[in-house]
Amino acid sequence: MSLSSLLAVAGIAGVLKSITNPAPPSAGEEMQFPRLKVGQLSDLQVGQPIVFNYPLDNEPNILVKLGVKAVGGIGPNGDIVAFSGICQHLGCIYGFQTAGSSPACNLSYRPDRPVGYCCCHGSVYDFTNAAAVISGPSPRPQPQVKLEMDTIGDIYAVGMGPPAIFGHQTGSNDVSADLQGGNPVASSE
Ligand code: FES
Fold first, then answer.
1. Is the pTM of this model over 0.85?
2. Does 106 contact ligand 1 (Cβ within 6 A)?
């Protein structure tokens, strides 16, 4: 019997999936996100990203220690950040570049700071500044993962900041709605 069959028989598959699927909020309630361990301080090397899925179990984020203090950064140097890995332009999966390094798709480009670089159409996100758009066609920054670190250096994802993760916009003008901490119903009242 395959592992998936065993999990199904044991009823475990549904449990595993629900760990990283946030419950949708009711009207007037805040979105509730899971608390998920995504790394350990001692394992992080400057400029070496780790990819983890959150808050849905098939949607990647980039966790990285930048080596320079960053907006929203945690850790002893305030330089550990994480962002959705799905480009806000048209949904490609983008990569991380250290300062001075070139993406394989554009060897003439060398950022002066750590960035996210999308090889689909060239959007560049400033990882030191809440993934603000530096250049390219992206209309908005990347959603920042809210991180916490405990006393032994374990790092947890505990929520998402705005805007909504690509693909989860509600269709309204409020792109900060849906899979992030605010509730569009509550905020419009
Ligand atoms: S999908 Fe990333 S720049 Fe177009």
1. no
2. no
pLDDT tens for 156-166 read 999 999 888 99
Measure 33 CA to ligand 1 centroid, in angstroms: 27
Nearest CA to ligand 1 atom 1: 90
| C-alpha 120 – ligand 1 centre gap (Å) | 5
Alpha-carbon distance of 160 to 162, in angstroms, equals 7
Evaluate: CB of 119 within 6 angstroms of ligand 1. no
Question: Residues 163, 164, 166, 171: what is their CA dihedral angle, to the nearest 10 degrees?
Answer: -110
Which residues of the chain have a pLDDT value below 70?
A: 1-31, 170-189
Q: Where are any strands of DSSP class E within the chain?
A: 36-40, 50-53, 60-65, 80-84, 95-97, 115-117, 124-126, 132-135, 145-149, 154-160
CB of 121 sitting under 6 A from ligand 1: yes
